[in-house]
Here is the input.
Amino acid sequence: THLDVESLNRSGMGNVVLFYDKSFELTEGTDLRLTQGASLTIAENISEVFPTSATINGSIRIAGGNIVLQSGTTVRLGAAGKLDVSGDVAGQYTAAGRTVTVDGGAISVEAAAVDIAEGAVLDVSGGAWLTTRSGKQTLKLGDAGEITLVNVGNDDLAAVDMRAYAAGSGGSLRIRTAADIQIGGSMLADP
Here is the structure.
């Protein structure tokens, strides 16, 4: 099944759920941009007995939104893969006529194995919005969001560019793995 990225980009959908039987791929050079605050779930549709994979080689942008990638077998983030739910950065003129979402959203990547290439980006940074009312400027600061990684290896953690910058509150990182976790020292070998 082929979905046209431009149709999705202009759809205004607030909740998109895509179930796949064998594989899902966002191809390199594809720039999926959903409505701010939207939710995108990409998940396998069958039991975990059969191998499945979800591959992100393009970019997904949802200001303040939620992205969930699930596979019973493998989720791959390529070198050009970017999941961006950071908040908007806007001034009163750049935001004229639209709502601004300043808080970062949430990204969850869950699979039996997560494979992340050097250069992949996960961004849950908070944004900011500068407005002027009655001659007085107001700056609204956004909080960073949350990144959850399930079954990610040492090499993958070293490769991924995780961002949770914010002038408001910092973000959250959750890692769940069957392997050992060590902070500092020499990198552990992946099992």
